[in-house]
Amino acid sequence: MAEEYTRQQEGAASEDYSEQTLIRINKLKALxxxxxxxxxxxxxxxxxLSRDILEGFESLDGREVSIAGRMMSRRIMGxxxxxxxxxxxxxxxxxxxxxxxxxxxxxRFKEYDIGDLVxxxxxxxxxxxxxxxxxxxxxxxxxxxxxxxxxxxxxxKDMDIRYRQxxxxxxxxxxxxxxxxxxxxxxxxxxxxxxxxxxxxxxxxVLGTLETGAAARPFITHHNALDIDMFLRIETELxxxxxxxxxxxxxxxxxxxxxxxxxxTRHNPEFTSVEMYQAYTDYQGMMELIEALFKDVCLKINxxxxxxxxxxxxxxxxxxxxxxxAESVKRYAGQDYYAWATDEDARAACKAxxxxxxxxxxxxxxxxxxxxxxxxxxxxxxxxxxxxPIEVSxxxxxxxxxxxxxxxxxxxxxxxxxxxxxxxxxxxxxxxQRFERQVAAKxxxxxxxxxxxDFVCALEYGLPPTGGLGFGLDRMxxxxxxxxxxxxxLLFPTMKPLD
Length: 499
What we know:
This protein is α+β, with helices and mostly antiparallel strands. The chain folds into two domains: 41-149, CATH 2.40.50.140; 174-320 and 381-488, Bira Bifunctional Protein, Domain 2 (BirA Bifunctional Protein, domain 2), CATH 3.30.930.10. It is 36% helix and 25% strand. The longest helix is centred in the middle third of the chain and has 23 residues, at 174-196.
């Protein structure tokens, strides 16, 4: 076995490795020659994490423990050494003395490299300087790290490498580890909040057979057995509303979404959304729900409701501002939607603000255009913008007294849209007409969009009055961890392959 392993390593060593990596490979070869190949070890009995020992020192002082993790630092001082071990609970110091572990083991320990994974059995104590540590009785090399870790004082700064080699980023940057621990806790807190309010978590299909008329461009794949093209979902909405038709009055999904579009600090082709639907409420009810959810989750994760985010203090605890889109455009752009008698008047208002609307823009499209260009970036504190034009809201219910507008809102923080909600359209005839207009527009752009006839059929069986809402989980994590880019909160963001 050792001879076979040696041949494998000699082949590996012929690759373009650094001198330091070749030294580590040779150390591994020497261990294999001695019959101590660490890759043959299959398990190690951990009794505690570092966090357990640090937080529970009073009860563990003098007791024997077993820990396992990555050696991140080492100071050899003759017959005794100190080393810091990183595990899932953090870092802890270990004290290794030759007289305790034996000459041979201590000699091998001195040949270990920073980054190696080790198992340690020893007793808990506190050093003269007051640092809680483990006095080592036995140390075992569990896995050899073949590449040097980034230098500890400068860390891993290259953003491209951090995103491509997230495993390395997690090893050397504790704040990155904390971000993704928080992400997991945020998801759990969202689920706890919704479950406590009677919502049922469900899963809906990721692959569909229709390219719907929705605005986003889908990814297309092919199913060989059926010999048909299929589309990765761009939303979970239509399937969730089918479930409300079926009598599941409160449903939600934490789901992966795929959109074949651009990439920037707020957009990744693959991201996570949270969508929820509640029968017998409307968009006002969903405003109350999402404001309460954000406050609840923030308090659980950060312990406070005033949080720093990209140079601003965001006051989540105060009542969130509410403005209609028309009110916001009048306040920030000085243009009055209700003073426009015609589409031409609306386009003239856009031009008066230095904008260039498309020649076909209607009053509603001009209102939305003005909002996006002159208002959105000014909404720093949490703000609901509601009553959107029907032209940009194909799934929202019309306002009864203003049918050119819909019962729809989006909410904004630090100039960024965080979520979207409606009083859901449940008139099947109206829905079909809007789908048909949307599909026609998409086909002009070259898409093979189709009306989702099964969804229209579901509406014909009767969707109760329903409020629906979706928000980007990744943007919420960005907010609650003060992260500048969506790539900072995705473990494996989409990256262009290296040449």
